[in-house]
């Protein structure tokens, strides 16, 4: 399993637009074989940071999902929310692998 962690710097005055953008991407990840763990939005402290986490079974499965960027109309529409509203100022993607609790203790 591979988990993509996306850190966003957002425009806090455009939080409603960011939420529309987030809902669109959560649906796309789920529709194309991933598991979305949610978007985490500002509550206290810094008001311009948000984070998303989603997983695919493998990097190859993620790459298959990514191959739709720029050609699939639903992916283009989701990106247009971000681009037209200016709700995302910057983002950074990191790939991680989870270390999960062992079900069997030695």
UniProtKB/TrEMBL annotation:
Gene3D superfamilies: 3.30.70.100
Ranges for domain NIPSNAP: 7-99
Residue ranges the record marks as coiled coil: none
Pfam families, A to Z: NIPSNAP
Signal peptide: none
Domain of life: Bacteria
Official protein name in the record: NIPSNAP family protein
Source organism of the structure: Actinomadura barringtoniae
């Amino acid at each position: 399993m591979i988990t993509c962690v996306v850190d966003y710097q957002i425009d806090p005055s455009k939080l409603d637009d960011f939420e529309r953008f987030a809902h669109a991407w959560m649906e796309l990840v789920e529709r194309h074989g991933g598991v979305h763990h949610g978007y985490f939005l500002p509550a206290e402290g810094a008001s311009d940071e948000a984070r998303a986490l989603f997983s695919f079974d493998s990097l190859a499965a993620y790459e298959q999902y990514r191959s739709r960027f720029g050609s699939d109309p639903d992916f283009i529409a989701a990106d247009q929310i971000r681009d037209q509203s200016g709700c995302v100022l910057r983002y950074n993607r990191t790939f991680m692998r989870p270390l999960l609790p062992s079900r069997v203790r030695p």
